[in-house]
Please model this.
Amino acid sequence: MVITQNVECQICGEEYFLRVGIGYDSYQKHYIDCLECEQPIVIATRANPPNAHIEPVENATLHEPDDSKTVINLHPNCAFPPEVYHDRRKFPSLNHLNMVAPFVRMRPGKFQDFATQFDIPNAGKRWGQVKAILKLPVNSSKARMRRRLISRYSDKRKKYNPDLSHATPSDVMCEFLDSLFYPRINDLADPVKALIDQLHADNQLEGFANYYDRNLKTENLNRYLSTLSSFFRFRDQLGQILDYARISSDDVDGKVVGSKNFEEIKLFYGRFTKR
Ligand SMILES: [Zn+2]
Model:
């Protein structure tokens, strides 16, 4: 679905005709740089299917749609080739669906929904819940609270996939990361699984697990929580190349996204997009 709205840069008065695709999240920010004064303009889409509308966030005044103004295409999950960035007839989400379709985990005999079978809707909010669960001290005094947080997370996720089940913090973490980064998550998980198999074969798994729990677990958990929190801070801007990264596609070079900050983010993020 594409919604349209005109937005005026409050600094220089230049007006743009925005065509904005709706992604997985109910609230989605978009960053563009004004083509005249180069200052950032920030708008957001708020979706409550089948309705969606655009809200001003920063340096933006909204006007009625008027497609005589410069067209800007935005989509939370697509990077645009320069020749279609200002094209009023493009529907990039169709190309995007074709791109991710081979990687969607189909549910035999059930209604298929790409948005929920390839990604986690409102992942930023779910991450807040996951982080709270993982940060709770593992002691019995918090057991009730832990069960309650896990059950709240589980209720939200089961709305999209009733087959999911979460009993422990590990279940939550594994399902969340798997759903968020599949199929690329396997590149991270496979070496870990191979190491576990090797340690098991050498009869060293228990010793290693004890050593890991005593000496490495807390430090590593804090590092992962911090890395993922950084990821979610940038996710609105990273989103336009995230799906390419997940399916190991380098087909983003030369494509236009809204904000010039994006080039810096892409460099930072390149470690994830390149094999
Ligand atoms: Zn401007």
